[in-house]
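ingest -> validate -> predict -> emit
validate: passed (alphabet ok, no gaps, 135 aa)
predict: started
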Amino acid sequence: MGYVDCIVFLLAKASQKSQNLLKNRLKPLGLTSVQALVLEALMEEDGLTAGEIGKRLLLDNATVSGVLDRLADGQWITKHSDAEDKRVLRVFLAVKAKEMEPRLIHDRNAANEEILAGFTMEERVVLKRLLRDFL
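emit:
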């Protein structure tokens, strides 16, 4: 078995290609794919803590912290102390992110569709199931 049949190589190249597709769509907004993913987590449930975001997206605390700092600098999010425990910071979508939500969802869906264009519906379902099971 050569490297072109190696699952690690295939997954890495597939990841690289898919990340580049999304990256090119997000570039005009000045967002990375991880930043967009964090915003989408907040679109599902606004007011999460950094730790909750990390758990949901399978990201380490250092990565989440840096992403949140850059999103705050870009006015995509705001951070506020928890009403019940002032030591806890909660993260909320800023107006800019709320206004851009339809575009972010559209860009993600368009990238997904481009990636999956050559697959049948059954292949798409199986691929997603296999990838979820691997995580």
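The radius of gyration is 17 Å.
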